[in-house]
Design goal:
P-loop_NTPase, repeat, about 20% strand, Rossmann fold, ABC transporter ATPase like fold, nucleotide-binding, about 800 residues, Helicase, Ruva Protein, domain 3, globular, 6-stranded mixed beta sheet, ATP binding, alpha/beta
């Protein structure tokens, strides 16, 4: 008998067959470290996934549920359309049932392309361009005339027109497109300048060793040799004596084939060669002396032609009510929203309404302090995630699964309630909201909680708890035990040993700020999002202060890059293998002589199937181990090189500590990785799989090897990002050890545990954007709690139980 409700039959609507699909059912999930996880997640509820870093939260939510939903949706399009879409293989899972359309809003920073801004990333810029092309005076052209990504183009010449059999005709044609790009900076807003005095000593000749570039030795044919033997230059003439043509060839010559000592090489000018070999790489991935050279040699300045607006003179001259599109994009978004609200033109009313909704969403989500011309790459992970949320807030869609990755990242405790309200609003519209989160304030609003663990990496991947927040609090899981953790205020704080004096700071929204940042202590800089914290620390501390900043920006590298290569750990390991077996170290590199020839050391073979999902299959010859079989015969401490790269950091630390495999150089690096809470990572794990917080801690581990005297001031940008409650205590201990070792540690942070543990607090505000930019408090955490004179003081007092 059908269970479908018939008119007048008196059955309850609950008996309808469609109402049986009230859960997302996952059975046998094995993605990454998941161990046959089976779970049922209620629909139209807010479910929070928690657990220690590396326990498998993202593997379950993003790599399994969201990934499969996206894959199934993509398969509904035609083969032609699928050919233009990103593809992914089916996740490792037995059954996924009850899925709905999934929209992932992750914390990955937006691309670092200088042409990408807040406005271009949210379509607000596109709507503004149309608005100015309709209402701007004088009228200069279509929307592209107001785009800094569109160059002006002019062309003329003969074109061939086919008019049928034997009627081909050549006609003269002209083409003209008006673009808004500034021709001087090509729409970037900044121009880079290379300091030539840092590249060479012009009083010397090339033969006398004029080059001062790291690694450029006189016997290197690929660098110095090609300039000395190219025939374009006199290697024995001092560089300052070069003719105009010689200087042009030396600095700017286009790539040209030359023969040096019988070898065919490509000669090109020094400046393009430096740009390719140094400036195209991630500074953080460079060796310290190379990074120092790049910081000395390259400077970036605001474009003098467009004053940083990126726009041509024509685009800047066209105005609506005395406001140009450059002025509009430079306004804080909340001010721009008010300006748009004051425009009334019936011919563009639908456009004005859509633009108004977008701008109001920025304000509602707490990003009203941003400007549309803000570079997208400069946004923090939390800001980038909230910008991505903009397009979903006003959506009329329901029964959608929204997936968020730590949406409270970068939020002051004062702002977390606003984010919670937005998540609840999405749920109340009839959507399923899945949130990966660590903050107790965000966990508290959950309808359902899933706790993964019990540990990280191979020690995790199982569901430890499912149920309510109160049930989690009463459970004996790691999260349950630490849910109510509160760091206490320090009874005794360290004394300052000096101060970094900042005077007249005006970067971004700072208002002529004067402050002394204490040295020799743990100093926390806090304040609501957009109050000016990063502008004060990253933008105002003198360049010669010996500061090294460790942030969450992506580490450039391919899927071949891993923690072992990035930290330099692989070097002593390769040497140890080579010494023990009497062979060359290069054999133990999957990127060099030891690589499997079939997969070139990748471990997998990638098959592009056009519009279908590309397939990555383990290499049959090396079985995914990346090395030639002959290399795997060499062992060290009873393990081959592939087995070592498959170890976790914690396991490898123990392996290289003593016995036959004792390698002090490798052990020191592994100890630092463990100290920053990355013991669960495997040595060969691709860097592309790391979260923002993991990237920052990996960078921190590399900088811990630097001598305190070289870079005595360490700046950390929200180091608690991605840290479980149980790991915060370990981070506080690490910060203490850094200070006790002679470093000054400055932390930009919102987490109350770090604030309570600080020796000194600098609080900025009182609000965001033009409502911020002032120092509203300087002193110890105890004084801040006692005075409660700021929003931070009120929340910190409540946190430590002084409410």
């Amino acid at each position: 008998m059908s269970s479908t409700k018939r008119a007048g039959d008196g059955r309850s609507p609950a008996s309808h067959a469609a109402d049986s699909h009230e859960c997302i059912r996952v059975h046998g999930a094995r993605e990454n470290n998941l161990k046959d996880v089976s779970i049922e997640i209620p629909k139209r509820r807010l479910t929070v996934f928690t657990g220690v870093s590396g326990s498998g939260k993202s593997s379950l939510v993003f790599n399994t549920i969201a990934a499969e939903s996206q894959r199934l949706i993509n398969e509904t399009y035609s083969s032609f359309v699928q050919g233009f879409m990103p593809t992914a293989a089916r996740p490792e899972v037995d059954v996924l049932d009850g899925l709905t359309t999934a929209i992932s809003v992750d914390q990955q920073r937006m691309g670092g392309d200088p042409r990408s801004t807040v406005g271009t990333a949210t379509d607000a810029n596109a709507m503004l361009r149309i608005l100015f092309s309709r209402l701007g005076e004088p009228h200069i052209g279509p929307p592209g005339a107001y785009s800094f990504n569109t160059a002006s183009v002019r062309a003329s010449g003969g074109i061939t027109v086919d008019r049928g059999t034997d009627r081909t005709k050549t006609v003269k044609a002209t083409f003209h497109r008006v673009g808004g790009m500034c021709t001087h900076c090509e729409g970037r807003g900044t121009v880079s300048d290379i300091d030539l005095t840092q590249l060479y000593d012009d009083s010397k000749s090339i033969a006398e060793g004029a080059f001062t570039i790291p690694g450029w030795k006189s016997d290197n044919v690929w660098t110095v040799g090609i300039y000395a033997e190219s025939g374009f230059l006199d290697p024995h003439k001092p560089i300052r004596g070069y003719t105009q043509q010689e200087m042009q060839d030396f600095l700017h010559r286009e790539p040209t084939k030359v023969k040096v000592n019988g070898v065919n090489l490509t000669y090109e000018g020094l400046i393009p060669k430096i740009q390719k070999s140094f400036l195209s790489k991630d500074k953080e991935a460079m060796q310290p002396h190379i990074r120092a050279f790049v910081e000395r040699a390259v400077t970036f300045a605001t474009c003098p032609e467009c004053d940083g607006s990126r726009l041509s003179e024509g685009a800047r001259s066209s105005k609506i009510r005395k406001i140009s599109i450059a002025d509009a994009c430079a306004m804080e978004i909340r001010d721009l929203a008010e300006w748009v609200r004051g425009l009334s033109e019936p011919s563009v009313q639908p456009l004005l309404a859509a633009l108004q909704r977008t701008l109001d969403s920025f304000v509602e989500i707490g990003l009203g302090y941003l400007a549309l011309d803000r570079s997208a790459g400069s946004l923090s992970g939390g800001e980038a995630q909230r910008v991505k949320m903009i397009r979903h807030l006003g959506s009329s869609l329901t029964d959608v699964t929204y997936v968020f990755d730590e949406p409270t990242i970068g939020l002051h405790p004062h702002d977390i309630q606003r984010m919670n309200d937005l998540l609840l609003r999405l749920r109340d519209k009839g959507n399923t909201v899945l949130v990966v989160e660590h903050k107790p304030e965000a966990i508290a609003i959950a309808d359902h909680v899933v706790d993964l663990g019990p540990g990280a990496g191979t020690a995790g991947g199982t569901v430890c708890f499912e149920g309510t927040v109160e049930g989690l609090r009463a459970s004996d899981t790691v999260t349950g035990r630490h849910l109510d953790d509160r760091a206490a205020l320090k009874e005794v704080v360290r004394a300052h040993t000096g101060a970094l004096k900042i005077r007249g700071a005006t970067a971004n929204n700072l208002r002529d700020v004067a402050v002394d940042v204490p040295l020799g202590v743990l100093c926390v800089v806090t304040g609501v999002a957009g109050s000016g914290k990063s502008s004060l620390i990253h933008g105002s501390i003198p360049a010669d202060a010996g500061v090294v900043a460790v942030d969450q920006t992506p580490i450039k590298g391919s899927r071949r890059s891993n923690p072992a290569t990035y930290t330099g750990l692989l070097e002593p390991i390769r040497k140890a293998f080579a010494k023990a077996n009497g062979v060359k170290p290069a054999l133990f590199s999957a990127n060099s002589e030891g690589a499997c020839p079939t997969c070139n050391g990748a471990g997998v073979l990638y098959t592009d199937l056009g519009m279908m999902a590309g397939v990555a299959t383990p290499c049959e010859d090396c079985e995914g181990k990346r090395f030639q079989p002959s290399v795997l015969e060499y062992r060290f401490g009873g393990r081959d090189i592939s087995e070592v790269l498959a170890m976790s950091v914690s396991e490898a630390e123990e392996f290289f500590a003593a016995g036959e495999a004792r390698t002090p150089a490798a052990h020191r690096v592994l100890t630092r990785l463990t100290d920053v809470g990355l013991g669960y990572l495997t040595l060969g794990q691709p860097l592309t799989t790391l979260s923002g917080g993991e990237r920052q801690r990996l960078k921190l581990a590399t900088h811990m090897a630097d001598k305190a005297g070289d870079k005595p001031v360490l700046v950390l940008d929200e180091p608690t990002t991605g840290l479980h409650l149980a790991d915060v205590e370990q981070l506080l201990g690490l910060l203490d050890r850094l200070v006790d070792s002679g470093r000054s540690v400055i932390v930009i942070e919102h987490h109350q545990a770090v604030m309570a543990h600080a020796d000194w607090i600098i609080d900025l505000g009182p609000g965001a954007g033009h409502d911020g930019g002032k120092v509203v408090f300087e002193g110890t955490p105890q004084e801040l709690v006692t005075s409660r004179s700021t929003l931070t003081g009120e929340h910190l007092a409540a946190y430590v139980g002084r409410a």
